[in-house]
Every structure is written in C-alpha cells, then in structure tokens.
Prior knowledge:
The protein is an alpha+beta fold. The protein has a single domain (23-48, 74-186), classed as Trna Endonuclease, Chain: A, domain 1. It has five helices and ten strands; from the N terminus they run αββββββαββαβαβα. The strands form three sheets. It has a six-stranded mixed beta sheet with strand order 1-4-5-7-8-10, sandwiched between helices. Strands 2-3 form a two-stranded antiparallel ribbon. It has a two-stranded antiparallel ribbon with strand order 6-9. A hairpin with a 2-residue loop joins β4 and β5. The termini are far apart. The relative contact order is 0.14.
Amino acid sequence: MNYPNGIKKPQNTSPITYSNRGMSLESDLNESNEYYREIDKAYIYKKPTPIKIVKVNYPSRDKAVIKEAYYTIPSTTDYNGLYKGRYIDFEAKETKSKTAFPLANIHSHQIKHIKNIYNHQGIVFLIVRFIHYNETYLLLGKDFLDFIEHENRKSIPYSFFQQKGYIIKDGYRPRIDYLKIVDTIIGGI
C-alpha cells in the first residue's frame, strides 16, 4: 500500500510469536485478584508451577540464570484461595475456537483435582474466554464434571457455555468480577 505522496508504507517484518497466548485472561484475573485483596474481599492467588532447578549459571550473584529445569509434579488448577471462609479453586483458559472449548486443554489430573474439590464442597469452576466473541464464561465444576461424565465429546460446545455458563462482564476494577457471579450462584454464602 502506498501513501498519497508516493511513500511506501513500511512492511511489518516482525515474526509471529505465540509466546503470550492465553496471557490476557491470566493478566485480567491477576489484576482482579489483586483488587480483591486490596479491598479485603478475597485472597485468591495464581499457583506457581512446581519446578525443580537442575542447572544454574551464576555470572554474578545478582544475575543468576536458570539453564535447565523440569516440572516435578503435575500442576493442579491455576488459582486458589479463600472467599468468605470457603476454599475457592479454578482453572482459567482461553480458546480461539468459535464453536467449542477443546477438552485437551484440561489434563486428567486437573479433572481429578476439580472433582476432589467439588466432592469436598469447595467452590470450584472454570473461567473460559472465547477470544473470537470477546466473551468470558464461568462454568461451575459440577456442570463441567456432568458434561465429561455424560457426553462422549472431545470439546465442550460454545452453546453449552451459553446455556450452563455465566457470562462475566468486563469491567475496570475488577477487570473480571467473577466473585459477583460466585455470590449469585452460591446465594451470597
């Protein structure tokens, strides 16, 4: 494309990177959780992924670089904490699919963890963002587990989220007010 004065528009030559896919939902949730802590509403944190460090390069004391590490045990879900005296635990995922959320995005040990939290009466759910529609849904752990148990599919249809899920409206502070929905679902605990 040329500008009117004959100057050519510079081409974007930066390579496509996929390194931050899924990070916008995580960033929004981290900001929301920080806000909840600031106003003393809830204490919910992103769980660190457990790793074992094998090799570290120490060029100087303040510039240590991890050269080799591996996961020690499978991680469970992304977030956990306390809300109104109850344990809360959830997984957050984004999908570019217009039609469904692939179940391959949730590992078997995470499903087992969700089931355990549900069986012990913890508050457990998924937060799934459909990027194409710019919609974020909260799906209760119970509905997620029912779907897996009764459906023989490799994905959860978008329509299932529309029927069983709760849409989370974007806001300013908090960015994703999922606790408003938790209050509605659980009856204000």
